[in-house]
């Protein structure tokens, strides 16, 4: 027997309706904010993630699925959605279109890491990316969109945490302060942190090792080093969130796990899915397009993991819409009546009604049992008399009520009764 690879999961028919609810809600929110869908390949050239995500990140250093294809090219399964969308924006000349360019995607992503609750090696992400606007109003809109998405899913237990990690100007001063702080502690820190000390000390704040986390608690805070422009931008973001009544906490320790972030970063955090509490996170990445060889344009976005959302919703008792059930099951007694049942069901299906028929050549009694298991609201049995008269008795399985309905009136009857 061949089993599913470690860190991956099948989505079975008994559970897929929950996924569809999350995905459809994502599309509804995207439509309300006028975000247009973009679809990028599952794999990209490895260089895209080295330059975009950052060589000092855990994603690039430890987690990417990278391989050489038959042409000798280094290829990577995408570990996140933003870099691929940015590459597509540049390659397809979207910088020449009216700004801002507002996009969304629902995509599988891949990271080689230890599987745990809500975190798999193949996972799925709903993301939003906005290109071309430097306004703090855009930051607020993206955060509102994320909040609206969670609200529509019925998730009430998340806390919004925000921070600013500044621009290149204030980041330089902050990096100097970090290096001065961490220098006496380097011997106590992990090998990864020691390698980041010279390359990117900001990444040291994101270390998951307990000893390193404890040392990082006393590190200087980025908010104390923001330049006037970054400080004003962050104050505007906060005022816009407050004006809309969206509660938030400023968490100066949020740096996010990817190197492309600048200025505003944010996370929606829950305590109901274990230690890995972030269910949605994002921020500005004003330098990414230029780093990838495109026109220098500001951008901002977020990503939300569907597996984590599903876990959170189940853990907190969020009610999902009911799984689709057939409105009517049409039973036949022999070959001729089953043929008529199929003709009627095909017509009903073509007009938007979910109808089921017997595909297993069961007895009428067994068909009733099966119809009950499918949750069909109505059952109609076509026998010889019904075939001759063109009328069928339709039984409401919830109330026991039975009505005689002509074949040609069945669609109108079901629409009125459903």
Explain what you see.
- Helix content is 39%, strand content 21%.
- The model has no long low-confidence stretch (mean pLDDT 94).
- The strands form three sheets. An eight-stranded mixed beta sheet has the order 1-5-6-11-10-9-7-8. A five-stranded mixed beta sheet has the order 13-12-14-15-16, sandwiched between helices. Strands 2-4-3 form a three-stranded antiparallel beta sheet.
- With 418 residues, it is an alpha+beta fold.
- It contains 15 helices and 16 strands.
- It is elongated, with a radius of gyration of 28 Å.
List the keywords:
418 residues, 5-stranded mixed sheet, 8-stranded mixed sheet, alpha+beta
- Average pLDDT, rounded to a whole number, is 94
Structural class: alpha+beta
Overall body shape: elongated
Q: Roughly what fraction of the amino acids lie in strands?
A: 15-25%
Q: In DSSP terms, counting alpha (H) and pi (I) runs of 4 or more, how many helices?
A: 15
Helix content: 25-40%
Uncertain regions: pLDDT < 50 for 5+ in a row?
A: none
Radius of gyration: 28 Å
Give the beta-strand count.
16
Taking the alpha carbons of the first and last residues, their distance comes to 44 Å
Task: Tell me about the largest β-sheet.
Answer: 8 strands, mixed
Strand order of the largest sheet: 1-5-6-11-10-9-7-8
């Amino acid at each position: 027997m061949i089993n599913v690879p470690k860190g991956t999961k099948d989505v079975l028919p008994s559970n897929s309706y929950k996924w569809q609810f999350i995905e459809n809600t994502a599309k509804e929110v995207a439509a309300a904010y006028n975000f247009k869908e973009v679809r990028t390949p599952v794999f990209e050239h490895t260089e895209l993630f080295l330059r975009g995500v950052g060589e000092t990140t855990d994603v690039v250093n430890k987690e990417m699925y990278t391989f050489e294809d038959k042409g000798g090219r280094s290829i990577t399964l995408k570990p996140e959605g933003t870099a691929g969308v940015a590459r597509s924006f540049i390659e397809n000349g979207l910088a020449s279109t009216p700004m801002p360019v507002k996009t969304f995607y629902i995509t599988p992503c891949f990271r080689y890491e230890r599987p745990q609750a809500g975190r798999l090696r193949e996972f799925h992400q709903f993301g939003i990316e906005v290109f071309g606007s430097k306004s703090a109003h855009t930051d607020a809109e993206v955060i509102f969109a994320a909040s609206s998405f969670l609200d529509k899913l019925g998730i009430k237990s998340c806390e919004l945490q925000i921070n600013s990690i500044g621009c290149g100007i204030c980041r330089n001063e902050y990096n100097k302060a970090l290096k001065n702080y961490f220098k006496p502690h380097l011997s106590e820190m992990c090998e990864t942190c020691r390698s980041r000390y010279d390359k990117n000390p900001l990444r040291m704040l994101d270390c998951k090792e307990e000893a390193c986390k404890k040392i990082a608690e006393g590190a200087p805070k980025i908010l104390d080093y923001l330049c006037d422009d970054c400080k004003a931008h962050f104050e505007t973001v906060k005022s816009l969130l407050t004006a809309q009544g969206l509660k938030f906490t400023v968490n100066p320790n949020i740096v996010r796990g990817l190197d492309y972030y600048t200025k505003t970063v944010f996370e929606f955090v829950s305590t109901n899915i274990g230690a890995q509490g972030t269910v949605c996170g994002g921020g500005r990445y004003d330098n990414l397009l230029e780093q990838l060889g495109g026109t220098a344009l500001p951008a901002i976005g977020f990503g939300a993991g569907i597996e984590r959302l599903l876990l959170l919703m189940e853990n907190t008792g969020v009610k999902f819409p009911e799984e689709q059930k057939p409105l009517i099951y049409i039973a036949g007694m022999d070959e001729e009546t089953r043929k008529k049942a199929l003709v009627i069901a095909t017509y009903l299906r073509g007009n938007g009604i979910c109808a089921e028929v017997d595909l297993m050549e069961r007895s009428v009694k067994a068909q009733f049992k099966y119809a009950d298991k499918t949750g069909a609201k109505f059952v109609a049995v076509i026998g010889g008399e019904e075939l001759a008269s063109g009328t069928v008795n339709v039984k409401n399985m919830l109330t026991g009520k039975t009505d005689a309905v002509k074949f040609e009136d069945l669609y109108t009857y079901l629409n009125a009764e459903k």
